[in-house]
Write a structure and sequence with these properties.
Radius of gyration: 15 Å
Number of strands: 6
Shape: globular
Distance between the termini: 18 Å
Oligomer: single chain
Length: 149
């Protein structure tokens, strides 16, 4: 990606993100930017949820595409909540919180992981086991740190 495009994307994101110490990546659009966490599992797609179908969990508002998805989430939120609070799994392996792009996702062993963008997801996938091990080690100390976009 060209430096100017990255700068513009970061500036646009900064307008919607807020510094938080929440262990969940959220913007004004909601947890994981308002995308339905259940849709990744049931529809294998990143789909924006509806403000009319929401649920409060981990101090953030989660949005869903259907009442059925909300019910599934409410019954077992740990199954559908992205790992590392929806922060970038690769970034977590490096010891910091990073924003994510909802389309840069993967499900591994029944768990949802999000990444900064598709290019970072490709890097993550090159040695996912090693990055995952490091991310799991880092999460307890990083999860309550402040996130600054």
């Amino acid at each position: 990606m060209k430096p100017k495009l990255i700068l513009v994307a970061l500036m646009l994101f900064a307008c919607t993100a807020r510094p938080v110490t929440s262990p969940v990546f959220a913007t004004e659009a909601g947890a994981i930017q308002g995308f339905d966490p259940v849709a990744y599992f049931t529809q294998a797609d990143a789909i924006k949820g509806s403000p009319d179908i929401s649920y409060q969990h981990q101090g953030e508002t989660w949005y869903f595409v259907s009442e059925e998805h909300r019910e599934l989430f409410m019954t077992d939120p740990e199954k559908y909540t992205p790992q590392f609070g929806g922060y970038c799994a690769y970034g977590m392996s490096r010891g910091y919180k990073a924003q994510t792009e909802p389309q840069a996702w993967s499900i591994v062993d029944g768990k949802l992981y999000l990444n900064y963008n598709l290019e970072v997801r490709d890097i993550w996938n090159q040695d996912r086991a090693a990055y995952l091990e490091k991310a799991i080690q880092n999460w307890p100390t990083v999860k309550d740190s402040e996130f600054k976009p």
